Amino acid sequence: MVVVTGMLLLGIVVGKRYVQTQREELFLDRVQTEWSALQERSRLNLTAGGLQFMGPQHIAHFEVKYKDGWRANDIPMPDTIQMLDKMDNTRVEQSSGGKMFAQPKTLKLNSTLGYHYELTFEMGWGRLIIKKVAGVAG
Questions:
Q1: CB burial string 72-100: b at 16+ within 10 A, e below
Q2: pTM over 0.90
Q3: All residues at 6 or more sequence positions from 105 whose CB lies less than 8 Å from its CB, including other chains
Q4: In whole angstroms, what is the distance from residue 55 CA to residue 107 CA?
Q5: How does pLDDT run across 87-136, given as a tens digit for each residue?
Q6: Hey, which residues does 61 pair with through a beta bridge?
């Protein structure tokens, strides 16, 4: 009976970590997709756009400027991801129209699961590269 209970508890712990890891990966996949979509909308509509990780609200906030105002899309962050950068350093902007992306930036997000993510926005075309790194960033 003790062995069976121990195995069930181990399964619950491993299963919970697996689900949390999957939530993080799905969140980051969606951030990547939304960033690409934001860039395309910016190019096609000749407007500016931006992404900001908002710690207090625990969201990734995407917005694109149109003639009639800004349109936003918020993605909730998983509970296991925490902001590392200060609020004023978490905004990434896409210039309007066909202008090149000229603000290379790397943002870091800590995971309570024992690692962190580096989100690097490349200079020139603004491609987003997400890297999972062992250990918590400081």
A1: eeeeebbebbebbbeeeebbbbbbeeeee
A2: no
A3: 92, 120, 121
A4: 13
A5: 556 778 777 665 656 577 888 899 999 999 999 988 767 789 999 998 87
A6: 52, 74
